[in-house]
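Protocol step 4 of 5: obtain the predicted structure for the target chain.
Materials: sequence only (see below). No template structures provided, no constraints applied. The aim of this step is simply to have a reference model before the mutagenesis design in step 5. Sequence pasted as it appears in the construct record:
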Amino acid sequence: MPGPVAPQIFSKDYPFAAKIIENRLLNKPDSGKETRHLVVDITGSGLTYAAGDSLGVFAANRPGEADEILKRLEATGEELVSPPALKLAAPIPLRLALTKLLALAKPSRRFVELLAAKATEAGEKARLAGLLVPEAKEALTAYLEDREFVDLLVEFPSARLTPDELVGQLRKLMPRLYSIASSPRVYPNEVHLTLAVVRYTTNARDRVGVCSTFLADRTLVGQTPVPVYVSHGHFAPPEDGAKDCIMVGPGTGIAPFRAFLQDRVATGAKGRNWIFFGDQRRATDFLYEEEWQEYLARGQLARIDTAFSRDQANKIYVQDRMREAAAELWSWLERGAYFYVCGDAKRMAKDVDAALHEVVAQGGGLAAQQAIDYVKQLKKDDRYQRDVY
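Step 4 output (structure tokens):
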């Protein structure tokens, strides 16, 4: 009988097995950060993208993490399981589930309850019971934030779980979306990414970002298949090339604006381009500095305002540079400029939004409510767009 027909259109449900063909460190020596430039080869995939789109990447967990869980379960990894989160038609080997399909972080209260029901050692039972009393709600949240599933298996060894009991607690390992840092007009068969590699320590254990270290450490250039798909969104440069662009992208938030600039130069857009970029130190963390200098020299980038937070006693951020350039910013907005923000949603995007309202109020001599209405209109007109995470 003939085998299954390969999908003709690659998507989130049918990702394309791409290859990483370039992986280079963007930070200079002595930087406190690890930011990488990756080039993903999508030749032959039929995948298309536009400036402002994102690339979805399906990662795998570190094999050592799966091995330690198997050790704690006293399992071989060949046991067949049916994780509820995956909704599979047939069982799969436990090792496959733990390595590629299930998330091993963020244990829940439900998992603590399971351990409490299974624990046989008195001290462990008492500790688990103490975590579950109503008045310990905040303490439990803090406790779980510092731990992954394996930590609890180590701390409560008398709670012996079966493979099915464990996988019944685990969530699906979801793909990670990365803003694309290239234009298809320049790189039709490549997708460029600007990747912040996540490494940290909690509960005396080294932790990593699953996808960032999968791409940075566990993917061999030109060899390891990386399942990817393109996620199309609303974030995009102005359709009218005559319009000016103001782009605020500190850290890896600069990624889509590298794509925007490539795209606008390739199409001969006449509108001006202004970038606000920030990071820790100019000497080590000025991502794509040489490219920006070339754009400036050719007149394709009108202005780049930088904020390196640790180069002086008082920390300076992109929103501070916005306030310093308030008059010019207001002038650009009044001439129809589009305003874009990409990066951290928790603090940066909120601080930039507050600064934008101040710039509008100051520049237009507007009351607070009038400034709010002005910014709302920018959003309605798609002239204020955000890609934050």
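Step 4 remarks: The domain at 245-388 is CATH 3.40.50.80 (Rossmann fold). The first strand starts at residue 16 and ends at 25.
Proceed to step 5.
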